[in-house]
Amino acid sequence: MSQKVAVLGTGKIGEALLSGMIRAGWAPSDLLVTARRPERAEELRARHGVTPVTNAEAAKTADTLILTVKPQDMGTLLDELAPHVPADRLVISGAAGIPTSFFEERLAAGTPVVRVMTNTPALVDEAMSVISGGTHATADHLTHAEEIFGAVGKTLRVPEAQQDACTALSGSGPAYFFYLVEAMTDAGILLGLPRDKAHELIVQSAIGAAVMLRDSGEHPVKLRENVTSPAGTTINAIRELENHGVRAALIAALEAARDRSRELASGSN
Predict the structure, then answer these.
(1) Angle at which helices 246-265 and 233-243 pack, to 10 degrees?
(2) Which residues contact 60 (CB under 8 A, 6 or more apart)?
(3) Are 141 and 163 in contact (CB under 8 A)?
(4) Whether 264 contacts 96, CB under 8 Å
(5) How far apart are CA 28 and CA 192, in angstroms?
(6) pLDDT, tens digit, for every residue of 51-100?
(7) Which of 30, 16, 19 is nearest to 58 (CA)?
(8) What's the CA gap between 150 and 96, in Å, rounded?
(9) What residues form DSSP beta bridges with 52?
(10) Which residues of the chain have pLDDT under 70?
């Protein structure tokens, strides 16, 4: 953990990563940050004790560069970094849809690149971060990326060809659950409950169900069947979900997210 790590374009996810790394044992003095606005950089210094630098200084000084800017800004950032990044730097991209080849073509030959798709539960140390290595990334580089992103949740290695699917499932995944909770809350109000009570009922049910999925080892079908009594309330609700094509709609939604990830990789706006 004595290596210097720089987070470039430090927004909410980047700050969550910094905070998690410090809690996991990284020294703030070994963490560098860049931000578009000077006041944002000073805010990060005051809050976490990290060192604000320019993008060029980060490229020259840090052993590992974590690029957290938006996908549409990545090309501009790489143009700025390329003259300053030696081939022995580890570059970690957190941008959705952009393949490691995009970085390898713009940086010094042989630069190791690791692609990571994390998600917003990083803000509460419950992220799912999916990690893939580029052409020059070694097992040690992947392990280092796991150590960094493991500070804010779980990590999973996959071949890069599976990254777009993982983006659709877990990168965008929290939004689907928030959407479902929003819809169920509205339903609770329609059924006569105050909003705050409907929200509490649904959120705790979601937390309990998630823990059961994680810890029980049971297939979700089995867990659902345990709640579904013959001719009961649950089976009537499930029938309506099937009648309205909810399962098919979810599959179509995930395919749309995957396709958009591919479009981002191709440079589409």
Answers:
(1) 50
(2) 84
(3) no
(4) yes
(5) 51
(6) 999 999 999 999 999 999 988 899 999 999 999 999 999 999 999 889 99
(7) 30
(8) 19
(9) 33
(10) 1-2, 267-269
The owner of tokens 């430090």 is 10
- Both structure tokens of 249: 């709609």
**DSSP result, the chain:** --S-EEEES--HHHHHHHHHHHHHT--GGGEEEE-SSHHHHHHHHHHH--EE--HHHHHHH-SEEEE-S-GGGHHHHHHHHGGG--TT-EEEE--TT--HHHHHTTS-TT--EEEEE--GGGGGT-EEEEEEE-TT--HHHHHHHHHHHGGGEEEEE--GGGHHHHIIIIISHHHHHHHHHHHHHHHHHHTT--HHHHHHHHHHHHHHHHHHHHHS---HHHHHHHH--TTSHHHHHHHHHHHTTHHHHHHHHHHHHHHHHHHHHTT--
Structure tokens of 232? 């009961």
